[in-house]
Amino acid sequence: MSEARTLPDTRERILDAAERLFMESGYEGTSMRTITGDAGVNLAAVNYHFGSKEALLREVFRRRLAWLNRERLHRLDEMEAHAGGEPLKPSAILSAFFGALLHMGTDESLGGMTFLRLLGRTLTEPADFIRTCFAGEYAEVVDRYKRALFRALPDVPREEIIWRFHLMLGAMSYAISGTDALQAVTDCELDLNNDGPQAAEHLAARVMPFLLGGLRAPLPQFVTNQEQQRKPEPSKAA
Questions:
Q1: What are φ and ψ of residue 45, in 5° steps?
Q2: What is the pLDDT of residue 193?
Q3: Residue 141: which of 69, 65, 62, 74 has the closest Cα?
Q4: pLDDT score at 235
Q5: What is the pLDDT of residue 125?
Q6: Domains of the chain
Q7: What's the confidence (pLDDT) of residue 3?
Q8: In this structure, are residues 74 and 82 in contact, taking their beta carbons and an 8 Å threshold?
Q9: Non-local CB neighbours of 26 within 8 Å, separated by 6+ positions
Q10: Both ends of the chain: CA-CA distance in Å?
Q11: Rounded (5°) CA angle 116-118-123
Q12: What is the pLDDT of residue 146?
């Protein structure tokens, strides 16, 4: 087999290099020259396959998020089919949604921890076009999981469920972006393995109980008061 056949094709080499470099230096801090040098291609090849740096970043995410979206919907479909029309357990819904993402960190063919850290970094400091990109990619999945949570938690105001889901997304984004900020804030030397399947497993063990605890937390007092005020007064006997 020739050497050329053992290498990934040009498009995949560019995507792999861009994924790693965007994770390390951010979108603004990564030049096209750096990407082409790392991928071993010329600028014409990047322009041919992607057209622009913005389009390249979009495709870096699209190739990974396509699998993630399918997997999340597949897990939800299986759970709903098994439940036979009954509401799902909230913990199962969260495990399916966030567990699918954390699974990517254990599998290098899905991007591994490199992609997870890139995703976390991008979600915590997104450009406008990335917000638009993510909104489109996630729309169907988020809507399905949101409706599942509404059914699973009928006594919790829907606005509060949306807030908690938003906070969980933020916590996960921060967690998968890496430990640099954590070490800076705590001023502690943390002996953490940030790469490889074991890192994703340790991250899941830490973050999933935290997310479940947040979902199960008592409602804020002002929300409880608002709900009580909305309840109709009991009718008085004539």
A1: -65, -40
A2: 52
A3: 69
A4: 45
A5: 74
A6: 7-51 (1.10.10.60), 61-219 (1.10.357.10)
A7: 37
A8: no
A9: 121, 125
A10: 93
A11: 95
A12: 95
Q: Which segments in the chain show pLDDT lower than 70?
A: 1-8, 126, 179-195, 227-238
Closest CA to 92 of 8, 153, 21: 153
Residue by residue, DSSP assigns the chain as: --HHHHSPPHHHHHHHHHHHHHHHHTTTT--HHHHHHHHT--HHHHHHHTSSHHHHHHHHHHHHHHHHHHHHHHHHHHHHHHHTTSPPPHHHHHHHHHHHHHHHTT-GGGTHHHHHHHHHHHHHS--HHHHHHHHHHHHHHHHHHHHHHHHH-TTS-HHHHHHHHHHHHHHHHHHHT-SHHHHHHHT-------SSHHHHHHHHHHHHHHHHHHHHSPPPHHHHHHHHHHSPPPPPP-
| Entry pTM | 0.83
pLDDT for the residue 229: 64
Tokens 């622009």 identify what position?
Answer: 52
Query: CA of 193: how far to CAs of 20, 21, 29, 198, in Å?
Result: 17, 19, 25, 8
